[in-house]
Amino acid sequence: MSSVRAQPLQPLNSGQLNTRANNITPIKSTRRTKDVQQPENVGVGIGAAGAVGATGAGAGAGADAVKPKKKKEKLSALCKTPPSIVRTRTGRDYRRGTFLGEGGFARCFQMKDDSGQIYAAKTVAKASIKNEKTKTKLLSEIKIHKSLKHANIVNFIDCFEDDINVYILLEICPNQSLMELLKTRKRISEPEVRYFMVQIVGAIKYLHSRRVIHRDLKLGNIFFDPEMNLKIGDFGLASVLPSTDSRKYTICGTPNYIAPEVLGGKNTGHSFEVDIWAIGIMMYALLIGKPPFQAKDVQVIYERIKKTEYYFPEDKVISDSAKDLIKDLLSLNPLNRPTIDDILNYEWFKGPFPDKTHELSLHTTPIGLQNIPKHESAINFTNTKANAGIYTPRNKNPVEILRSDLQSEQPKALLPQSLSPNDTRQKYQEVDPNSLGKPRKFNFNSLYSTSIKHLNQICFETYQNMRRLEYSVHESIDTLELPRCENPTLISKWVDYSNKYGFSYQLNNDDIGVLFNDDNTFLKLHNSDRFLELIYHENEGWTCIENSSSQPPSQAKRQLEIVDFFAKYMNSNLSKVSENEERKETVFLRRYTRTSEYIMFEMTNGNFQFNFKDHHKICVSKSGLAITHISPNRTIQTHPLILILKEGNFPSNEVPECLDKISVIKEAIKKKAFKDA
Question: CATH number, domain at 591?
């Protein structure tokens, strides 16, 4: 036991700990390696990994620890044994019970209230909270866990402190964790794992719906409650994404379970897909008996993960449908992993499915699991999904496709949910070096005459020119510099599928593009076997990779299928904004913004296109010096902006409230220009 004298942590008072926050602020840690735990089977979980449920048999992952080569005192060793009665400032007292186990940062004890109800108390020594970052991280864990309420998540009860420790009071899970189950049983049957997976998927679906990433999902952090239902615990590494397209960059987790994009750190970033990856690791481990990338050396584990180097042992027979699901869950590219909604649609879940998990399963495989009839399995599957909060509503569209303002008819069909993996911020593999043919890779700036400037800069230049022209309306035409006007490349059709995948558009030269939720774009060129992949690098601009559509790199096939589907969908269901144009330039959509009045497109050539709700479209080009109007009947006219400002409208096909629309455009561009300044 350390001799460090514990000091009260003043900011951690009961008022702060016991206030349920309506808005959870995510904590972005800059610590890169300290949050990486030892592999499960080869290490300890962070933040008292099984404090929740290791009742009677160690604390989850902590019970699986193997001593590192260099012996180092755990921070949990600073945790003093709580007094026999812990008194809270709210007047509620708890009687300390037996020691349950410990993780890397905390110890776990039984606690009993006045009514005799027993809980698990995750106990963190104040002496271990050595700086502001550690304190903030603990508060983040408390806030996140306190905000959650789900049948398959360990229930948060209370939080309080004394002069020595901080106590996180949790629902007790007396039947150990999946890690202990696997250690006892060696391998788990497929029907049982199906049941486990549904409960885990239900909990993760709930977390992701609240924009929470767990980031430390592993067998040692999933516990059995008294009814043998699974409960996810330990939110020490959990984080909240402020928006669905934002990313986290801290390298953290348990080595055997870390997704490859996490190992990329700031070069890639990670999001919800890391939890999908962890589902694949757990499923493999339960069915085979150990994690797929298991090794004694952590660096070997990392190298195997980066290459997805694993195999299915011939002596450990599992079904082909199980292998298919695992392979997809462990896709190297996050884009290729199934969404949380897609997982339960796999063929594997149509196999024998039990009605519940029995305590007998803690010691041996129940008899007759493989003989559960199909109709009974289907009923059990449906009931388990419902109990896990997974519902399949009837006669309800899985995703809302908003009516395009480029046409008057509703789309005739909905995009299938199965086409859309969850959003991701950046792929960590650009080109498959072994793919057939050599892709052409070039910097976008050197390829095109229009340089790719920072979005703010382009917005600022355009706004300044529009503002200057407003003050020049009284000058004579002869004194003005009039731009050479030509009809610009326009977005002719679009489908907003960003709630699941990205934004698809067709240009009036018939090129088809998809701006994925990771800010990267695929553009399939019309009447060409080539496609362009535009990859965004922060502070560096874009890299453009050209490839063959007939022989694409393996990691691009999925995205190309999506582009082709969108192309077929738009050609079948949406009308064009104008007649076909020849490709004058290669143009990508960089960013779009939707409001109740318009949708705004910001293009790589510096143009801004606004589609107003009255079906009139206006495009500002030439850095704000030229303006184009597209009428609802597809008539296009382009003129110097100064002339339109002087006359108050376009010379033919007048635009309703023309100057008001131009003012709206100017203010929208101004807002973008100064948003991040």
Answer: 3.30.1120.30
> Which residues pair with residue 544 across a beta bridge?
442, 534
Q: Considering 216, 234, 518, 519, which one is annotated as catalytic? A: 216
| Mean pLDDT computed over 314-343 | 94
Cα 582–chain centre separation: 38
Whether residue 643 is predicted with pLDDT greater than 70 in this model: the reply is yes
Find the domain containing 543 and state its range: 440-675
Q: How many domains does the chain have?
A: 3
Question: In sequence order, what are the beta bridge partners of 589?
Answer: 603
- The whole-number average pLDDT for the span 129-155 is 91
* CATH number of domain containing 137: 3.30.200.20
CA distances from 612 to 459, 462, 538, 617 (A): 19, 19, 31, 6
pTM flag (> 0.70): no
pLDDT score recorded for residue 470: 87
Compute the distance between CA of residue 219 and CA of residue 49 in angstroms, rounded to an integer: 10
In a domain, 26, yes or no: yes
User: How does DSSP assign 377-435, residue by residue?
Assistant: HHHHHHHHHHHTT----TT--SS--PPPTT-SSPPSSPPPGGG-PPP-S--S----TTS
> Is 136 found in the same domain as 22?
yes
Q: In the listed set 142, 170, 198, which residue is the last one of a domain according to the structure?
A: 170
In the residue annotation, 432 being an active-site residue is answered as no
pLDDT at 148: 92
